[in-house]
Amino acid sequence: MSRGRGGYIGFNRVPAASAVNSAASGVWTVRESEAMRRAGTWPKTPIFGFGASLQLWLDASDASTLYDSTSGGALVAADGAVARWEDKSGNARHATQATSGNRPQRKVGVFRGLDCLRFDGSNDFLDSTDFLDLTPGQQITIVAAVKSAVTGVTQAIVSKYGKSNVTMSSTADGWGLRLLNSNKVDFFGTTDEGSGISMRVSDNTVSASVLTVLTVKAAAGSLSAATLYQNSSTIASSATASNAETLDDTSYAVTVGALRYTFNAVNPYLQFFNGDIAEIIVYNSALSDTDRNAVESYLMSKWGIT
């Protein structure tokens, strides 16, 4: 039985170069997904959408989502700069970068023959759209496959953060998933400048020098119930939370690879990610353990993470 450009189910063969990252759209079964895993081709539509809760899906292995212009343009060749990383969730929350010198590069065949985006840790980042405020009652799950090129440096993976203006007294609201200079992972939120910060920090140091899947799940717009995971194992217990108050609305874009901080008028972005980002999946719900494990297992299998 054939399925569009997806190959033959149950027939294991290495796909032609043109077939890689060009799997058929539609609903995929576990059997179909496993067949495509073996063949090196992955679906273009989400296997684990969980209804309307899927908000953002950035997949660097899908070359058809990487463009050289913020409005589209041409597909990016190997080692080319990425101006637009298209969102595969169906919500059109594409991540873009208008400044040519601040764009990550497309690196080909890095992990199990799959591509990734490489961020230089200096000025590379992409901005998506304004969505997913952690207001009272709002939930969130973020799953990201990343590899850091450095240790001992605080660097943001994905964030939604900013200040209302550049004065010291203005408020700073938002959240972020980061690697810390202590080599731990944290998910933070803040409601005002200099105080009111909430952090969920991993209990121990985390090695991100190899590709790893990091997950945060938070319920009810508060970090008091947030949990961190690495490769599907819990790395932060409830005892690690501090000042876990409810977070506020923030009217800023979700940023990939940096933290937006407008207090610094010279460069309103900092904590740049230095390394490779392979895939990011964001939900506006606190996934059940079964669903979370399904997403993590999908990424770990796809990217060859054990």
CATH architecture field of the largest domain: Sandwich
Number of domains: 2
Named CATH topology of the largest domain: Jelly Rolls
Strand content: 25-35%
Structure description:
The protein has two domains: 1-45, no CATH class; 50-303, Sandwich (Jelly Rolls). The chain is mostly beta strands and 306 residues long. It is globular. The chain has two helices and 21 strands. The relative contact order is 0.18. A hairpin with a 2-residue loop joins strand 15 and strand 16 (233-234). Strands 1, 6, 7, 9, 14, 15, 16 and 21 form an eight-stranded antiparallel beta sheet that branches. Strands 8-18-10-11-12-13-17 form a seven-stranded antiparallel beta sheet, with no helix packed on it. A four-stranded antiparallel beta sheet has the order 3-2-4-5, with no helix packed on it.
Task: List the topology elements.
Elements: H1 30-39, E1 54-59, E2 66-69, E3 72-75, E4 84-85, E5 95-96, E6 105-111, E7 114-120, E8 126-127, E9 140-148, E10 155-163, E11 172-179, E12 185-192, E13 195-201, E14 212-218, E15 227-230, E16 233-234, E17 241-242, E18 255-256, E19 259-260, E20 269-270, E21 274-283, H2 289-303
Antiparallel strand pairs: 1-21, 2-3, 2-4, 4-5, 6-7, 7-21, 8-18, 9-14, 9-21, 10-11, 10-18, 11-12, 12-13, 13-17, 14-15, 15-16, 19-20
